[in-house]
Design a protein that fits this description.
The chain is of the alpha/beta class and 444 residues long. The protein has one domain: Alpha-Beta Barrel (TIM Barrel). The chain is 50% helix and 10% strand. It contains 19 helices and nine strands. An eight-stranded parallel barrel has the order 2-3-4-5-6-7-8-9, surrounded by six helices. α11 links the parallel β7 and β8. The radius of gyration is 21 Å and the shape is globular.
Amino acid sequence: MGRRPLDMDKIALELALEDDLESKRKLAKKITALAYKKGIYPSSIHDFYMARGRGEVNPNFTVPAINLRALTYDLAKAIYRVAKKNNAGAFIFEIAKSEMGYTNQPSFEYSALLLAAGIKERWTGPVFIQGDHFQINAKNFKENPEKELDSIKALIIAAIESQFYNIDIDSSTLVDLTKGTVKKQQELNYEVCAKLTHFIRQNTPGNINISVGGEIGEVGSKNSTPEELRAFMLGYRDRLRKGLVGISKISIQTGTSHGGVVLPDGTIAKVKLDFDTLANLSKIAREEFGLTGAVQHGASTLPPEAFGKFPECGAAEVHLATEFQNMVYESPRFPKELKDRVYDWVKKNLSGERKADQTDEQFVYSTRKKALGPFKKDIWGLDASTRDAIAGEIKAKFEFLFEKLNVGNTKDPVNKYTEVKRVITRKRLEAARTAVPISGEGAD
């Protein structure tokens, strides 16, 4: 008799619900080993991005970078289905430092769930897993720079060990607009970005160039300018050690904010995004610095008509998160009883975060993401038909985004520039883990 096939749905559920970290790690390693056997490889998008920056790849598409805060396995399966249907390879799964904390998804669990979904959907080839917004806390940095940098270094080590071969450094929080020149304003930003790039390269597993991103404008602040981009890149290159591979993309601000702007009735205000700035800075990034282009954050809650404009203006990458979380909560299949318990928990436990002028709707909308960790078991505990139905609703959104961002038929060029291989962790990565102890992974 042949061996019975593994039930990936059951294994993924067990991984997500397991409380013991060591048992959870063992399950994650089992999934990762099986993924390699199935031809699924966590990979870096760096070489593909640099080819795009050199003009070898037509820049008429924008890569979606998708944050999955809830039902990660179910939604990842939906994304793979959409990708296979459209022969798409240029898409990224990502999770931010803060999201790992409030969704209770450590990096190794997140990557393993993505690989489990790939196994289930019979995906083959590269899978791009990205650490989003590995962000410097400006207040903590001012009080103790080395301690704050050590916390980011620990996060980086944990991410690399978890097959995150794409990492976005966000030191834009250190930009000081009170300084007299643009160079001085960006100075701490590019110095810290260069320092962390060196740390990543120093601790990268063999024969792989992790894709590193930088950022010049904190999301929600003023729009970025060509002067800021040039000041950052020139300063960054000057601080980067000779011969070291630098960033492949640059995140900018063009008028969005994370989660959107919430109106008193709980709906999202329409945002006027500056596509001219996005197009201009993407062009400068490619033509003057050889990057793949500019990256747009905080875009998932934009109106539908906006998404077709990203490829038109040459945007390299667009980050999408909040809308998928919203669709889970607002799904008619999401149990009202569970939603009521979530909202009651938010009002009771997060009342200290409420701003004086917020309505109930605004407060709940802005804080309900932090209930995803405490209610993780309840959400994963929904019956399979309910989870499938919710994922099916969101799959339609993924189909829309893949079409508008023009990532269909990108699998062949991605495969051309992405070498798929099992990455062997270097001994110095273990040494770095010892030097920078990891605790509270992902917590903000």
